[in-house]
Amino acid sequence: MNLENTTALVTGGSRGLGKALGRALAAAGARVVLVARDSVALDLAVADICAQGGEVYGIASDVGGVDSAASIAAQASALAGPIDLLIHNASTLGVTPLPQLLDTDAADLGRTFEVNVMGPFRLSQAVVGGMAVRGRGVVVAISSDAAVEAYPGWGAYGASKAAHDHLTRIWAEELTGSGVRFLAIDPGEMDT
Predict the structure, then answer these.
(1) Is 143 a catalytic residue?
(2) Residue 19 bears catalytic tag
(3) pLDDT digits (tens, 9 = 90+) for 146-169
């Protein structure tokens, strides 16, 4: 995908992998919109990428918020144009230290799923229709080895990442032939 004159929306964009993706996408010529909860860290990430000559915007929002997706999609499009690349990078481990499933509160499991599954689902719904109408677009789910390996204490996170991976596969099947591609990528171990 040629990134010149495209718009990329990256959740979890204020630090770590999300910020690095934003920096690389901007350097490749994309207009980048970063989304993160922490407005201070987000402002710093935007300033850093701008200082390197990138076109970047920030939206302070919680991807896991029930009413966030439509607002994020609308703001991103207003700031940078129709979204061509959506990267679902925002995630939460859940409660730390990570408890065994037997000790995991249902509300904590639910919050992990809100951020790691429902947020990306809602945001995809808000963005992918426009991609399909234009006949092009890419949606990337940042995954984890915890989606396929059972690690004690990582139950909420692992189950949510497995669910997000499977949703990505279903989106891909349902939109076959639309010009919209879906990928789940496990970036491996990172020092973020």
Answers:
(1) yes
(2) no
(3) 999 999 999 999 999 999 999 999
Q: Is 57 a catalytic residue?
A: no
Joined tokens for residue 46 = 């935007």
Three-state SS for 185? strand
Q: For the full predicted model, state whether its pTM sits above 0.85.
A: yes
E strand spans, the chain:
7-11, 31-36, 55-60, 85-88, 137-142, 180-185
Name the pairing type of β-strands 85-88 and 137-142. parallel
Report the distance separating Cα 156 and Cα 158, nearest Å: 6
Q: Which of 91, 143, 144, 160 is catalytic?
A: 143
Whether 32 and 8 have beta carbons less than 8 Å apart is answered as: yes
Residue 93's alpha-carbon distances to 46, 63, 85, 158, in angstroms, are 25, 14, 25, 9
